[in-house]
Amino acid sequence: MRVPFVLKILAVLGLALLLLIPLSWTRELVAARNARQGETETEVARLTASSQTIVGPLLVIPYAVEEKRTERNEKTGEPREVWEDRQGEVRFVPRELQLEGGIGIEARRRGLYRTQVYRLTGPLKGHFSLEADAGIRTGRNLRLGTPSLVLGISDPRGILNRMTLSLDGRSVEFLPGTRQGYPAAGVHADLPHLDLGRARSLSFEIPLELMGTRAIRMAPVAEETRVRLQGAWPAPSFEGGFAPVERTWSGKGFSALWKIPSLSRDLDTLLAGGPKSAALDFGVAFIDPVNVHLQSERAVKYGFLFVLLTFAAFLLRELLRSLPVHPVQYLLVGLSIAIFFLLLLSLSEHLGFPAAYAVATAANLGLLGAYLCAALGSRREGLLFTGGLGLLYAALYGLLASEDNALLLGSILLFVLLAGVMLGTRRMDWNRAFRPAPGGK
């Protein structure tokens, strides 16, 4: 008995929907592997150092001063002036701050997973401009405490060198901690011999060798901040509240220059800490451009489209040739396509994505070619179908390799496929094709 073609379409559509189950399993597996990649990054950061943010340096000067205030006599109610001690501190930011940093990248592996650890080397240079007595004008009997220079480093475990401050011709060793609410993590250098009684300019230099993972950022606290970073990383991602004014990158590495004047940033917000302060930081992140799990995830999203296009080609053949294809054959071909994406994921973790895609495609097309030549009863038709699937796999790789142009390329591909179907069936009598056979046979 001849099955009405409408029922055949519904049955094939049901099989396609059934294949969503193995495709969704593959997507969940990709998500789990990608989550494991994130856990690896966290583990490496725990053992080495996390993303780094540099704040400062800041020149902190504690002081005590007597200030006058007015109070009333409790018995007579008459006002009188009294002097009382008030303690505080002033924080100075550099008039100019420069960093010329070179960044080296190395991969750290945990089993099949890897993440990047960077090493930043380069001196922090600049100068402070100070007024006499730290510019404190109010009160009397001013007493200045021991000043210190504070450098905030978000994860001090990443400090690799013996940090020595060169300030106005004098060398001072840094000590752990900042003794500040913000930045809370970092180092400080006490400056007991610093003469604050006169206005002066203080030049400084701090040799820096810092390790971290994923990203390096900096707070633009200086009145004029100039930072140049360069390193051998082909896919830098520039982050934060300020973009570099100059940037170049290639397969060999990148170079970026930031210039941030005082008018472009809010110093009070920067020195307060918190999310608003972090939003003004700037820097670069080192994102893996060949993350096989993200590429596999993008590939699996096209799995159902592959199944639909293949089933549509079989249905079109049935219409044009009046040669039926059994639902089991539809199912087996669909399963081979679904397994292709699982094979792609497993191979990519060992071979890399391009090689894994080539091997998985060759294996899948070889299997389909051998099966379809026998199942369709024609070697020529089997090879034509296999060649068509090969073009689809090639098109998918083009979509994955060109993420920025994926929408354009995908739209063109669907248009070409639709145009091919419309032109190939433009003379078909669709009423006759869907008309039941005489006598129900």
Task: Classify the fold: give the CATH topology of the largest domain.
Answer: Immunoglobulin-like
Task: Tell me, rounded to a whole number, the average pLDDT.
Answer: 77
Task: Specify the number of helices.
Answer: 11
What is the CATH domain class of the largest domain? Mainly Beta
Largest sheet: 9 strands, mixed
Q: Find the count of extended strands (DSSP E, 2+ residues).
A: 17
How far the N terminus sits from the C terminus, by CA atoms, comes to: 5 Å
Structurally, how many domains make up the residues?
2
Judged by helices, strands and strand pairing, the structural class is alpha+beta
**What's the helix-strand series?**
HHEEEEEEEEEEEEEEEEHHEHHHHHHH
The global form is elongated
Query: How much helical structure, as a percent, in the residues?
Result: 25-40%
Describe the structure in brief.
With 441 residues, this protein is α+β, with helices and mostly antiparallel strands. 40% of the residues lie in helices and 33% in strands.
Using brief descriptors, characterize the structure shown.
441 residues, alpha+beta, Immunoglobulin-like, 2 domains, 40% helix
Task: Give structural notes.
The longest helix has 28 residues, at 20-47. 40% of the residues lie in helices and 33% in strands. It contains 11 helices and 17 strands. The protein has 2 domains: 5-37 and 293-440, no CATH class; 53-63 and 84-289, Immunoglobulin-like. The mean pLDDT is 77. It has helices spanning 5-18, 20-47, 267-272, 275-279, 292-300, 303-321, 327-351, 353-375, 379-401, 406-424, 430-433, and strands at residues 52-72, 79-92, 96-110, 113-130, 140-144, 148-153, 164-167, 170-173, 175-176, 186-190, 200-213, 215-219, 224-231, 236-240, 246-250, 253-261, 282-286. Strands 1, 2, 5, 6, 9, 10, 12, 14 and 17 form a 9-stranded mixed sheet that branches. The protein has an 8-stranded mixed sheet with strand order 8-7-11-4-3-13-16-15. With 441 residues, it is an alpha+beta fold.
